[in-house]
Design a protein that fits this description.
19 strands; 20% helix; Glucose Permease (Domain IIA); eight-stranded antiparallel β-sheet; alpha+beta; three-stranded antiparallel β-sheet; binds zinc ion
Length: 313
């Protein structure tokens, strides 16, 4: 990376989407492997050691406090309507976010990358695409009506990759969007703010502290949902776009690197502790600072007090 720093700098400059980001770019350390791996033929080779067409089997390891570079992003769709968030749903984990799109709407690559999977799964994702990106993330786009890229194709951020649809286990056209690291799902809302059509920051840091607490919380939520009755599940299904899946046993949520306490059907409240900021609370609950402000009627300059109860969903 150091010998390529001039090149990396060019790439960073080219990808800077607006002036507000230039300040951060001047401060960036080019020897940070998370910045840009220019090699799109072998994206994120610093993390992944294999290239298969199996969604979950990704070998490699994530360095501690890994910084995912979100600059150079493109929102996969201009739609701002979220039909269903990431998190426990119908007694199991919904591993992505559902965004309303119509059949035929253009779906775009979220970052530069290389198409790892381009398949059809009739009982699940329908026509779907998985792209591996130099920042270490993989993005998945499901229920497409058409795939317009091929496996192993290099794509650029914003390039059309498919058309919105309703294929697979889906009731009503929508985009099922996932963000994964080493085959494990991370809540896309931690990085992509569809309502504001922006990323949540220039970087998202995966750290162990976040993942440990989050896995425990996610497990608790799943248990609670499992005790709910079938009637409620049917009602939830009717309100969402994806069909109630047959009950399955999965331990996928036991070992995800950064699963977060998720939005539930009922509101979640949080009591402010010393050192908390709206930003840290938003990250913890997979939402955004804007959303927290809206939910709690907070002004931009509002100061959090210890013990103050904040609604998080
Ligand atoms: Zn979905």
């Amino acid at each position: 990376m150091t010998s390529a720093s001039g090149f990396a700098q060019d790439i960073i400059a080219r990808q800077a989407p607006s002036d507000k980001r230039l300040k951060d770019i001047r401060n960036v350390k080019l020897n940070n492997t998370a910045v840009i791996s220019a090699d799109l033929n072998n994206p994120a080779a610093n993390i992944y050691t294999d290239w298969t067409d199996n969604l979950r089997s990704c070998s490699g390891s994530v360095p501690a406090n890994y910084k995912i570079d979100l600059r150079g992003f493109c929102m996969p769709t201009p739609s701002r309507k979220i039909n269903s968030p990431f998190g426990p749903r119908w007694g199991r984990q919904h591993e992505g976010m559902d965004i309303k799109v119509y059949i035929g709407d253009t779906i775009r690559a979220a970052f530069d990358g290389k198409v790892r999977i381009c398949k059809y799964n009739g009982g699940g994702y329908g026509y779907y695409i998985v792209i591996r990106h130099p920042n270490g993330l993989e993005t998945l786009y499901g229920h497409l009506s058409k795939q317009i890229v091929k496996k192993d194709q290099i794509v650029r951020a914003g390039e059309p990759i498919g058309l919105g649809g309703n294929t697979g286990r889906s009731n009503g056209s929508h985009l099922h969007f996932e963000t994964r690291m080493l085959g494990k799902p991370i809540n896309p809302a931690l990085m992509f703010d569809f309502v504001n059509q922006d990323v949540t920051g220039d970087y998202f840091v995966l750290n162990e502290g976040v993942s440990k607490g989050a896995v425990a919380a996610a497990t608790r939520s799943t248990k609670r949902i499992k005790t709910e009755n079938a009637q409620k599940e049917t009602a939830m299904a009717a309100a969402s776009n994806e069909k109630v899946p047959a009950p399955t046993t999965t331990n996928a949520n036991q070992n995800s690197p950064a699963q977060q306490p998720q939005k539930q059907e009922e509101p979640i409240s949080y009591s402010v502790k010393a050192g908390d900021t709206l930003y840290s609370i938003a990250r913890k609950y997979g939402t955004t600072v804007d959303q927290l402000r809206k939910l709690n009627g907070l002004k931009n300059n509002a100061v959090l007090k210890r013990g103050q109860v904040i609604r998080c969903s």
